[in-house]
Amino acid sequence: MEAKVLDSWVLAEFATPEALVSATQQMREKGFQGMDTYSPYPLHGGSEALGLPPSRMPFIALGGGLTGMVTALTMQTWMNTIDYPLNVGGRPLLSLPAWVPITFELSVLFAAFGIFFGLLGLSKLPQPYHPAFESEEFRSASTHGYWLSIPHPTGTDAADVKNQLTALGATHVTMVSGENE
Amino acid sequence: MAETAHLPLDPLEPRDLVAPHHDDKSLNETLLDHVWRKPGKGWFMLLGITSAALGLLVVGVTYTLARGIGVWGNNQPVGWAFDIINFVWWVGIGHAGTLISAILLLFQQKWRTSINRFAEAMTLFAVMCAGLFPLLHTGRPWFAFWLFPYPSTLGAWAQFRSPLVWDVFAISTYLTVSALFWYVGLIPDLAALRDSSKGKLQRTIYGLFALGWRGSGRHWHNYKIGYLLLAGLSTPLVVSVHTIVSFDFAVSQIPGWHATIFPPYFVAGAVFSGFAMVITLIVPARKYLGLRDVITDRHLENMNKVILATGLLVSYGYLMEHFIAWYSMNQYEFWTFYVNRATGPYAGVYWLMITCNVVTPNIFWFKKARTSIPIMWVASIAVNIGMWCERFIIIVTSLSQDFLPSSWDIYTPTWVDWCIYIGTLGLFGTLFLLFLKFVPAVAVSEVKELQLELKHAAHAAHGHGADTAGAGSLTHGAH
Description:
Chain A is an alpha+beta fold. Chain A is 45% helix and 15% strand.
């Protein structure tokens, strides 16, 4: 077991998604790092406000799809042409046109698994516990609340960050601390 | 529960995609309400009916397993009958779900958000029912794993040139991808359920399934693209699955089966019956779940338009089959299409199919029919019956009387066939009722996003002084 690192975050709730996006933008311009937004649905311009790089999902999906394709082609060719050749009505042992349906299906299947597990992996889910859940108000994040979290290094003044957020229109500012991810 | 009293209730009046008086909080209450509410008498009554039907499935399957598939009506030459008819029918019903969620998402049709969750659940349950039939038809379902390539001590591999093995891959892929797609779409709503739950138990269970989702911007960033990609994958998948199902027939030589029109014609038929099933289920559900604010008359009308379009495609398929039978002057084909199907022992089913599939959808040319709840509900049931008849006609008429009169025989389903068929309807209904009870029937987070977009659109239009998209027509994307 590694030593538990306690960390704290300043959480601020905003009244509208627009207010949250513009506050995120401004806090990032002030130099705050590692911020995150929380909202019941994707924010328009949210990724840009957080300054996130383009998602790697398409590459993961492509990788999955290609893996599926190669797997299917190799499997069918090896099984029906080499390891267990079946002569059906004199058809060629390497019947590529007949391999098409299964190749397609497995490409889709592997790509879908790639997307699903890729999504979980990139988002570090499942993660049933997160310090943010310590705050009862934060439960609105999945229903009707728009939140911003700013990691707060220990030993510095949290009140200053809180004031800045309030100045940007936060309706509710709170602080949570807990085990780091 | 939000009411729609102040909205125009005239069915001829086009209605909004989402009733405009909602904000995030009230949408939440409306859409999650049916999960938290105690189920009413109606729900229990329906559950009783569907569970009774499910009991028939248990009886039918148990009897089949104990005695072998000889207890079915299948005979020589009709080796495929009810089992494959129902399989194709159920898979077809499943297709509307993926179509609604995937294709409409790719085309950015905003009206899909309210119905996709519902339709995807339908897909999952329909494919589960479908899968039962070929499984039982193998006769020894405990050996069903033989269909998959696995390192067997027999040293034999599956035959990948066989459409039946393609089927196994197509259906299992379809079920898996649909389940992933459905679940990924559900995660934010499960989080919403977790966070609005009142008891600890509910919170724990929904929390477990929500995987700790907290609406993080960094998660949404990947989620949006991942979900879109899954939709992109599902779209060709739908087409491929029913194409492969049609290959089961089209690759053979039986008159009435080996038609090149089969793949597109089967896909159109699948969408046709699937959308009809959505109408059949959504009309009562939106009433009793109080979802009229998000599943508006506009949605129903659009779905009826899809039914009309695919109904015409199916009619074209029939026409083409008959044309090719005449044009080729193949006497077996000619006899199958012009004599046997229309006047033979199954002529009643044939004419019922023509009435339900060719005549019925044409009432949707009229706006009055497209927007009338009773008419569309009856028509949708007729379409479901018609599509079942179509599968019966394709499979049974072709097999029972093919080339040689000496090998002809009449097929009659037995009580076990009926038990299993009605039983799958029960299984479907039971799963569906449980779904309606425990999971939001409408994709809540997507509707909220849509609501915001619509507000922006209306606002922007007002700002520019344009009166084309005022508050009264928050329906962009629905045309």
